[in-house]
Amino acid sequence: MEKTVFITGANKGIGFGIAKHLGLCGWKVIIGARNERRAEKAIDELKSQGIDVLGWVHIELKDLDGIDKAAKEIAERYPELSLLVNNAGIPGDMSVDSQHTEISVIRETLDVNFVGTFALTKALIPLLSKNCGRIANITVPSEISPYWHPLAYVASKAAQNAMMGVMAIEFQQAGTPLEVFSVHPGPTTTDLNGNMSLPGFHDIETIGQKFAELICDGKNHQGEFIELYPIVKED
Fold first, then answer.
1. Cβ partners under 8 Å of residue 13, min gap 6
2. Distance between CA 147 and CA 116 in Å, rounded?
3. Residues 199-210, buried b or exposed e (16+ Cβ, 10 A)?
4. Residue 198 has what pLDDT?
5. Which residues contact 227 (CB under 8 A, 6 or more apart)?
6. How many Å apart are CA 27 and CA 20, to the nearest integer?
7. Is residue 112 part of a domain?
């Protein structure tokens, strides 16, 4: 079976790093992006490095009708899809504490990071199951860190982690030939955190390579929460 992956938010950041390094491992890549210009720029860069990019699909996670359209397009154009990487997301307002977080920000962040991600995953499950595929969610721990805990973002990812756990149990109980797991990259310098770079942070090249090694390790990771680079607790 051909190794074909669809990665949301793959035009930049961690998603781009994942696309590059999976491509270098022999995967055929489909870019998920919101903007055609940025998608085409990413495709050109990936192809210049020898990556087999099949194309791109417009995906806006807060647009449920658009998600259904995107899933149908993927099923028609790329019926060999065997891996979905749910990478795209928004940060919410990371500059305020919980008591100053606006309800509108909570809703928007949940709509994109959880509801939209669930909708896309649900829509692609039939195709992925047919191909005995896998679903990998890029996330953060549900356990609250004393060092970094923006409410909207952490809550949306906790919901995503719960989705993964429930689906993993259901796939196992039903004998569904589909694997789902969560991957925490660890502290990474990206646009999402304002390109923060502190001791212990990694770049997208490092994360992309480490993620590709995980995907290509030949192991079953059903229901696992995998930390590529765990957050180091201070003494």
1. 190, 191, 192, 204
2. 28
3. eebbebebbbbb
4. 47
5. 141, 184, 186
6. 9
7. yes
Cβ–Cβ under 8 Å, residues 9 and 87: yes
pTM > 0.70: yes
Number of separate domains in the chain: 1
The answer to whether position 232 is within a domain reads no
Structure tokens at 44: 């050109």
Q: In what order do the strands lie in the sheet with 53-58?
A: 53-58, 28-33, 4-8, 83-86, 134-138, 179-184, 225-227
CA 39: distance to chain centroid?
16
Handedness of CA 28, 30, 31, 32 (dihedral sign): negative
Q: Quick one: which of 171, 110, 111, 135 has its CA closest to 7?
A: 135
- CATH number of the domain residue 26 falls in: 3.40.50.720
- Strand 179-184 relative to strand 225-227: parallel, antiparallel, unpaired? parallel
pLDDT at residue 209 tops 70: yes
| Residue 138 identity | I
